[in-house]
């Protein structure tokens, strides 16, 4: 561990155990595990550097709300004394560490446009670091460089980091590039030393160069010029100076160790520039290689070294444990070996996207089977489990007992047998084979063994007669707590999940073919809720279901809280009276069997209901109260979901979208803006004291003549639920 005192032209002045000396920067890496300090270093011992931003504000303290004491320009020299949490202490005060660098900025600045969601900007390239603010949609930001998913950006003298995905346009401004044709990100290397220009013309400004063997990514090209990017910088270079690829195959990244001292070059050639070396035992990450060379990363440095100078971090074959077979795809070109070690015999390469079946695995390795039945071992980091969306799958029924295989081959591993009459989801077909899914597991079988099932997959957002039929069947068996409306909402999803759990199916809440086949079969089991006995004083989920069912039928208008109190007891007695049962207020198995069935009757409109615990209020139409409660419960069920402008569910909402969605569940159609909901929907009340649970509340949040800029749903006791666009917590909240 050494301390860097100063740096210039690739050489660092360092301190080690009281001694001072010099070393090449490329031979070192930043130790980020040491706690950083903000204590000022002695004068003259700071690290020299330069401003890389076009302009950079300097503050009196490490706080953007403190006084701006100076403004620096690009290439101004500075001395860095200390750094912490993205702040840098320099001679003039405190500024953004991201606006500084060890050398002058060698490229023209690039710009990008923020997309419609806006862009959160942080002090460091981490969402856990301090947040500087949010760039609004359409804002053009100067993009200093790109590193993986993050972009270092500048705006009005401030420098921070934001995600690359926040931009509509990526960095780089094309000049006179009308005849440029987009290509699919071609990797290329320089044949010889060539210059990078700010425009496709040899008399344009030179903004950098490539040495022979240096790699770049070609984004566009014409007959003479290529538009390229490297390390987040962009420019133009003569097409004749490039050749496609570098001869190395991308592989799943793995850790390797230097067998002895080996040199590192800036291209895969011993005639390329030597940029450093590795000592025996030093580890690197290998991400590409051929028979001779390896492309390596150590810290923030990259380069090429001889493959025979490295060994895998572990040449010992790992012990693997069998797992339930699942399908995975190669995320890039992936080497396959004869044992669980890259020191084993190489069996070939899986091309990007090729799917295999994983049969066993350890922490680092997977035993895989290809579609041709061949077995091998590959690094798990190079595989991604294939997740299938079954919502659009075609349903089918087994015509006979069917053997299911791990891949489309009768020589592949047998996963099990699909019994005659079983329903599955068919994800794809190829020739005589079908890829199928059942209870979350994937397999293959002969297509001729299946026949189409006449079921359409239903899920949240579906509507129509098929949904009504589904809800009625769920109600008949005691799984559905509401009343059939033909709209597939949260209460339907919950009912489907209950049935799937009882039937031993995957609890997705989606009524796929397998679920419907089981539901409509004569052997479908009734819900266990029918055999439950409840009475005053009981609490829990069964009481929640009881209260919810009574609410939808119009007998219960208080809060659904899972506590069997006097109001619940009275509601049960009211239901018992209507159904001709013994009116004791206890929900015994006979009452529960009646209540959770399709024969349950709704509360008559003229039946009086209790208005408070232990009492009885006036005559109020029960359906009106129950609808208000349903609106509130629906809105509260969305708590924590994200605020997204112009969204009305079911995964995100804006303010009027949440109100629209909640009222839709009780058959009330509202307009889709806060203004029209406030001015055109419903009846205006005269006083806040007149507010009732379930009413729409409107707010004036902008200084204009429109008094309804934001809406929510009143809950009582001065509380309301709404979809907030607050920068601090843009979610559905109370």
Folded structure, characterized:
The structure is a single chain. By secondary structure, the protein is mainly β. The protein is built from 9 helices and 50 strands. The strands form 15 sheets. It has a 5-stranded antiparallel sheet with strand order 9-8-7-4-10, with no helix packed on it. β7 and β8 (87-90) form a beta hairpin.
Notable characteristics:
single chain, 734 residues, mainly beta, five-stranded antiparallel β-sheet, 50 strands, 13% helix
Quick recap:
With 734 residues, the chain is mainly beta. It is 13% helix and 36% strand.
Q: Count the helices. How many? A: 9
Give the low-pLDDT segments.
30-45, 169-176, 611-625
Main sheet specs: 5 strands, antiparallel
Strand coverage percent: 35-45%
Give a count of the beta strands, DSSP E runs of length 2 or more: 50
Using the alpha-carbon principal axes, give the shape. globular
Straight-line distance between termini = 52 Å
Instruction: Determine the structural class based on helices, strands and strand pairing.
Output: mainly beta
Mean pLDDT: 80
Spatial strand order of the main sheet: 9-8-7-4-10
**Helicity range:** 10-25%
Radius of gyration: 34 Å
């Amino acid at each position: 561990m050494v301390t860097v005192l100063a740096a210039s032209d690739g050489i660092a002045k360092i301190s080690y155990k009281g001694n001072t000396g010099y070393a090449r920067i490329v031979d070192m890496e930043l130790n980020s595990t040491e706690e950083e300090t903000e204590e000022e270093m002695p004068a003259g011992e700071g690290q020299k550097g330069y401003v890389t931003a076009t302009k950079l504000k300097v503050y009196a303290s490490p706080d953007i709300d403190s006084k701006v004491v100076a403004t620096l320009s690009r290439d101004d020299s500075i001395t860095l004394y200390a750094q912490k949490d993205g702040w840098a202490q320099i001679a003039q005060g405190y500024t953004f560490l991201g606006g500084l660098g060890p050398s002058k900025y060698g490229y023209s600045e690039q710009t990008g446009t923020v997309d419609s969601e806006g862009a959160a900007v942080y002090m460091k390239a981490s969402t856990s670091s301090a947040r500087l603010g949010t760039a609004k949609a359409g804002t053009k930001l100067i993009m200093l460089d790109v590193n993986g998913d993050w972009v270092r950006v500048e705006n009005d003298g401030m420098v921070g980091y934001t995600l690359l995905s926040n931009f509509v346009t990526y960095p780089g401004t094309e000049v006179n590039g009308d005849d440029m044709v987009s290509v699919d990100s071609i990797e290329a290397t320089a044949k010889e030393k060539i210059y990078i220009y700010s425009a496709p013309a040899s008399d344009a400004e030179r903004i950098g160069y490539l040495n022979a063997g240096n790699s770049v990514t070609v984004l566009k090209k014409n007959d003479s010029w290529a538009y390229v990017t490297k390390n987040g910088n962009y420019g133009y270079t003569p097409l004749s100076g490039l050749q496609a690829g570098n001869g190395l195959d991308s592989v799943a990244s793995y850790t390797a160790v230097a067998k002895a001292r080996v040199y590192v070059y800036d291209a895969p050639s011993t005639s390329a520039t030597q940029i450093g070396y590795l000592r025996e035992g030093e580890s690197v990450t290998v991400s590409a290689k051929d028979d001779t060379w390896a492309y390596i990363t150590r810290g923030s440095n990259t380069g090429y070294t001889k493959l025979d100078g490295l060994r895998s971090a572990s040449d010992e074959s790992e012990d693997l444990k069998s797992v339930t077979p699942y399908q995975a795809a190669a995320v890039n070109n992936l080497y396959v070996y004869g044992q669980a070690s890259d020191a084993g015999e190489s069996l070939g390469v899986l091309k990007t996207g090729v799917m295999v079946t994983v049969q066993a695995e350890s922490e680092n390795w997977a035993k895989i089977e290809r579609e041709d039945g061949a077995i091998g071992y590959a690094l798990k980091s190079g595989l991604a489990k294939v997740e299938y969306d079954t919502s659009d799958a075609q349903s089918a029924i087994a015509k006979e007992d069917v053997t299911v295989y791990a891949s489309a081959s009768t020589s592949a591993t047998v996963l099990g047998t699909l019994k005659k009459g079983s329903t599955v989801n068919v994800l794809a077909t190829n020739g005589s084979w079908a890829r199928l899914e059942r209870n979350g597991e994937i397999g293959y079988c002969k297509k001729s063994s299946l026949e189409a099932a006449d079921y359409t997959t239903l899920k949240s957002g579906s509507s129509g007669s098929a949904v009504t039929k589904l809800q009625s069947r769920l109600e008949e068996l005691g799984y559905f707590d509401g009343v059939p409306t033909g709209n597939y909402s949260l209460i339907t999803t919950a009912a489907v999940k209950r049935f799937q759990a009882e039937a031993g199916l995957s609890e997705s809440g989606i009524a796929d073919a397998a679920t419907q086949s089981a539901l409509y079969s004569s052997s479908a089991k009734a819900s266990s809720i029918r055999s439950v006995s409840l009475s005053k004083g009981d609490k829990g989920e069964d009481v929640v279901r009881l209260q919810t069912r009574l609410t939808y039928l119009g007998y219960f208008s208080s809060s659904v809280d899972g506590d069997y109190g006097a109001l619940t007891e009275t509601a049960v007695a009211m239901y018992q009276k209507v159904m001709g049962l013994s009116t004791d207020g206890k929900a015994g198995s006979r009452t529960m069997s009646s209540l959770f069935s399709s024969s349950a009757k709704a509360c008559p409109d003229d039946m009086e209901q209790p208005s408070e615990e232990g009492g009885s209020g006036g005559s109020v139409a029960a359906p009106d109260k129950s609808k208000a409660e349903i609106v509130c419960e629906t809105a509260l069920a969305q708590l924590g979901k994200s605020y997204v402008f112009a969204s009305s569910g079911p995964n995100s909402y804006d303010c009027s979208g949440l109100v629209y969605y909640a009222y839709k569940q009780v058959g009330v159609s509202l307009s889709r803006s806060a203004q029209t909901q406030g001015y055109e929907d419903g009846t205006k009340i005269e006083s806040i004291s007149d507010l009732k649970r379930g009413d729409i509340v409107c707010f004036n949040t902008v200084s204009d003549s429109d008094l309804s800029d934001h809406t929510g749903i009143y809950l009582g006791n001065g509380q309301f639920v709404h979809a907030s666009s607050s920068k601090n917590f843009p979610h559905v909240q109370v």
